[in-house]
C-alpha cells in the first residue's frame, strides 16, 4: 500500500496540473522588534487528554466541546487617529501530517515567532483508504478523490497535529474533500453540491474514531460545527455557488478569490479575504502569494525542476512576499494573505521561503500574524466607516497627511468608490 506521504503529495500534483490557469498560475506578463501581536502560544502536548471537567464528548467521541479556544486575542476597535496594525495571515491548504512532518514543524515555527495560522483540512485526510466508499463526491461515483485518502497512521498523526494546533490558538478551516479541479470539477458544482461536500467534510472530522476503529485516543477538542467558519476552494474554482452555500451554512469568510493588496469588504455577507497578487522579483508581473503559483512560474507544472535553480527560486518567492509585506506595512496597511501547501516541491525551497518570511515579518513592530478567524473577528469589531475609509487607499498607498489625520474623528466621510478585485479571472 502506498504510504500517506506519497499518496497525499502525488494525489495533489495530479489535481494541480489541470489547475495551472487558476490557483496554480494567476499571473500577468526595518529594524525588527518583538511586539504585541497574537499571544505567544504555549506548546500543546497533542496527545494529552483534555481535563474532564471541561470536556463534553460529541457523537462517537471524535470531537468534544472543551470551552473557549485558548490563546485567542480579544479584538479591539481602533481609536480615532490610530494606525491599524499590519495583519499577515499564513494559511495551509490540505493540512495533513505525513512523514515529512511539515505540519508539526510549522506549528513550532509559529510558536517561535508569536504567530497563529489557519489550517485548511482536507476531510479525506481523516478517512482511511479502506473506508473510501463513505465519501460520495458530487457528480462522481463513491470513493473517488483526486488527492487520494489516508492510512490509519496518517489519520492518527493528522489528528494529533490538529488537536495541538487548535489548543495553541490556530484555526481549523476546510479545503473540502476530493479536490476536483478543471473540467467537470468543483467549478461546475451547484450550491447544493457544495452543501453536500461541506457536510461530508464535517462528518469525516466528527467520525474519525469510528472510521479508524480507534477507541482510546483523545478527541479533537472542538465542536467542528461551530469551529468551521471559512474555507478556500480547490484551485480557487466554483466560488460563486460556494458563497451561496457558505452563507446559508453560517460561514463568516471566504479566501477563494483573487485581489490586490487592499482592505477587504464583505461579499454576500461573508468577509472576502481573497488571495492577493504580490511582485515577482526580477519579472514584470505579479502572481498569487502562494507557493504553487511561484512554482508554476518557475518550473512549470513539474515539482522537480532544475536543482541548480532551487535556491534562487526560493529566494525569489521569499523576496516577493517580503516586497508585498513592505508595501503594505509602509503603505495602506492592508492585511497580507499568504497560502501554502505542506509539500517539498523543488527540493523544499518554498517551505524555506515561507519559514524565512515568517521569521522576518512576524516579530516586527505593529505586526500581527493571525488566523483568518482572528482577522475576521478584528474586522467585525471595527467601525464600518473606518473600514470604508481604509478601503479608499490603493495598493501601497499611505495616507498623504498621515494616519492620525486620515482616521481622526474629524476626517471627511469615506468615498463610496472602493478599489476591488482585478477584472481578469485567475
Give a short overview.
This protein is 34% helix and 12% strand.
**What radius of gyration results from the CA coordinates?**
21 Å
Count of folded domains: 1
Count of alpha/pi helices: 13
Number of strands: 14
CATH level-two architecture:
Alpha-Beta Barrel
What is the H/E string? HEEEHEHEHHHEHEEEEEEHHEHEHHH
Question: Could you please describe the fold and organization of this structure?
Answer:
The chain has one domain (54-66, 86-380): TIM Barrel (Alpha-Beta Barrel). Helices cover 34% and strands 12% of the residues. It is built from 13 helices and 14 strands. The strands form four sheets. Strands 3, 4, 5, 13 and 14 form a five-stranded parallel β-sheet that branches. A four-stranded mixed β-sheet has the order 6-7-10-9, sandwiched between helices. A three-stranded mixed β-sheet has the order 8-11-12. A hairpin with a 2-residue loop joins β9 (266-267) and β10 (270-272).
Amino acid at each position: 500500500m502506498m504510504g500517506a506521504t506519497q499518496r497525499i503529495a502525488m494525489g495533489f500534483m495530479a489535481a494541480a496540473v489541470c489547475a495551472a490557469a487558476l490557483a496554480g498560475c494567476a499571473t500577468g506578463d526595518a529594524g525588527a522588534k518583538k511586539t504585541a501581536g497574537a499571544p505567544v502560544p504555549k506548546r500543546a502536548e497533542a496527545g494529552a487528554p483534555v481535563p474532564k471537567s471541561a470536556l463534553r464528548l460529541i457523537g462517537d467521541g471524535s470531537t468534544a466541546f472543551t470551552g473557549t479556544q485558548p490563546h485567542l486575542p480579544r479584538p479591539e476597535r481602533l481609536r480615532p487617529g490610530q494606525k491599524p496594525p499590519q495583519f499577515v495571515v499564513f494559511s495551509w491548504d490540505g493540512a495533513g501530517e505525513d512523514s515529512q512532518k511539515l505540519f508539526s514543524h510549522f506549528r513550532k515555527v509559529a510558536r517561535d515567532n508569536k504567530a497563529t495560522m489557519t489550517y485548511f483540512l482536507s476531510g479525506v485526510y481523516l478517512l482511511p483508504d479502506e473506508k473510501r466508499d463513505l465519501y460520495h463526491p458530487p457528480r462522481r461515483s463513491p470513493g473517488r478523490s483526486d488527492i487520494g485518502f489516508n492510512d490509519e497512521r496518517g489519520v492518527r498523526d493528522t489528528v494529533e497535529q490538529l488537536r495541538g494546533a487548535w489548543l495553541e490558538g490556530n484555526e481549523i478551516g476546510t479545503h473540502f474533500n476530493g479536490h476536483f479541479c478543471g473540467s467537470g470539477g468543483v467549478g461546475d458544482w451547484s450550491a447544493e453540491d457544495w452543501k453536500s461536500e461541506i457536510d461530508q467534510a464535517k462528518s469525516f472530522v466528527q467520525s474519525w474514531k469510528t472510521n479508524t476503529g480507534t477507541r482510546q485516543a483523545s478527541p479533537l477538542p472542538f465542536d467542528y460545527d461551530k469551529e468551521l467558519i471559512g474555507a478556500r476552494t480547490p484551485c480557487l474554482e466554483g466560488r460563486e455557488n460556494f458563497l451561496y452555500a457558505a452563507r446559508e451554512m453560517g460561514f463568516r469568510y471566504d479566501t477563494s478569490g483573487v485581489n490586490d493588496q487592499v482592505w477587504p469588504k464583505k461579499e454576500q455577507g461573508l468577509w472576502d479575504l481573497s488571495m492577493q497578487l504580490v511582485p515577482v522579483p526580477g519579472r514584470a508581473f505579479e502572481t498569487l502569494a502562494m507557493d504553487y503559483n511561484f512554482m508554476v512560474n518557475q518550473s512549470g507544472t513539474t515539482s522537480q525542476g532544475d536543482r541548480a535553480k532551487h535556491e534562487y527560486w526560493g529566494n525569489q518567492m521569499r523576496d516577493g512576499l517580503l516586497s508585498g509585506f513592505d508595501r503594505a506595512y509602509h503603505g495602506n496597511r492592508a492585511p497580507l494573505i499568504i497560502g501554502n501547501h505542506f509539500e517539498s516541491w523543488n527540493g523544499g525551497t518554498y517551505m524555506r521561503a515561507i519559514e524565512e518570511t515568517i521569521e522576518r515579518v512576524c516579530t516586527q513592530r505593529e505586526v500581527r500574524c493571525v488566523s483568518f478567524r482572528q482577522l475576521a473577528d478584528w474586522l467585525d469589531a471595527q467601525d464600518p466607516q473606518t473600514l470604508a475609509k481604509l478601503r479608499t487607499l490603493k495598493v501601497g498607498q499611505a495616507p498623504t497627511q498621515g494616519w492620525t489625520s486620515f482616521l481622526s474623528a474629524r476626517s471627511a466621510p469615506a468615498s463610496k468608490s472602493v478599489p476591488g478585485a482585478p477584472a481578469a479571472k485567475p
